[in-house]
Amino acid sequence: MGGNQSWVTEFILVRFRLSAEVELFLFWIFSLFYIFSLMANGTILGLIGLDPKLHTPMYFFLSHLAVIDVCYASNNVPKMLANLVNQKRTISFVPCIMQTFLYLAFAHTECLILVAMSYDRFVAICHPLHYTVIVSWSVCTSLAVASWACGFLLALVHVILLLRLPFCGPQEVNHLFCEILSVLKLACVDTWINKVVILAACVFVLVGPLCLTLVSYTHILWAILKIQSKEGCKKAFSTCSSHLCVVGLFFGIAMVVYMVPDSKQREDQEKLLSLFHSLFNPMLNPLIYSLRNAQVKGAMCRALQKKRSM
Fold first, then answer.
1. Is 92 helix (H, G, I), strand (E, B) or coil?
2. Which residue has the higher pLDDT, 291 or 119?
3. 59: number of Cβ within 10 Å
4. How far apart are CA 267 and CA 289, in angstroms?
5. Is the pTM of this model over 0.85?
6. Whose C-alpha in 18, 23, 141, 213 is 20 to 30 A from the C-alpha of 224?
7. Strand 90-92's sheet: what is its strand order?
């Protein structure tokens, strides 16, 4: 490399090409969505922690999903919001790498937690008599610990490979935050090793978990069709279909971003998809998985009644 090259110490995040009025409008809209996401996930965590009736494997995994969603959104969204109203849209090298690491870690962990949740529902519906034996607390804890450990270890591998690369310009990351593929484009050397590892990780945390989740829900839907009660069948089918929609959106968007060949025309589309992943997905999860649930509604009523009686 030439001796006159200067090493990058900060990056410039490239936003959407919008007018100042539209950006200000989006700032307030996205801020409301972000606050709602934090409140919804915080409410779920509070109810699960306070109500003994929700101390079950299903809500154990839902509490982990809520923690992941809060952390996932808080890692990306505040910087996105700041960039909508600030003229200076720079981020230093170390915070950028940390943002990349946490983004990958929480995304990987969520993929694996969703698989654990689908397995829990599969056993609960298809093998109800053996549920407490198969999905014991030790099994739940092991699945949760394994999900977090695998998620963070995979993210650490990506970051270690990223740190070995020289970044000598240009400084512009064509994304709303430090997303790994956008950062890789700024490296001065060939990044084929990084891309191969990303593809391998996608197979491990996207394709594999999606297949396992679909197998679980296929068995669940088959079991639901055998239910004699039309009302019970309709209720169970409604729950499973909404779960599948969330799973499909989460895995589908991630696979489009990381497994479909890149192109210049897709850069703005990828920004929108990443925005959905970071902002709307953490908001949808508590609505679909928890707040529509009768047990959660019951726990909320009990909590409100207890507060009134105090």
1. strand
2. 119
3. 23
4. 31
5. yes
6. 141
7. 90-92, 10-13, 172-173
